[in-house]
What we know:
With 54 residues, this protein is mainly alpha-helical. The chain is built from 2 helices and no strands.
Amino acid sequence: MIPVLHRFWLEDGGQDIAEYAVMLATILILVIGTIRLIGQHANTAFSNVASALQ
């Protein structure tokens, strides 16, 4: 049991996957926040244009 735990402690293959998962989550949060912000402003702009055309 000790050799298995020692080998598990020394392996760093899973560390790369965790780092990529954190980077992906950060990028997704930024993209979703940007889309929501742009979406709200775009909705307001389209509403103003529609009101002006009527």
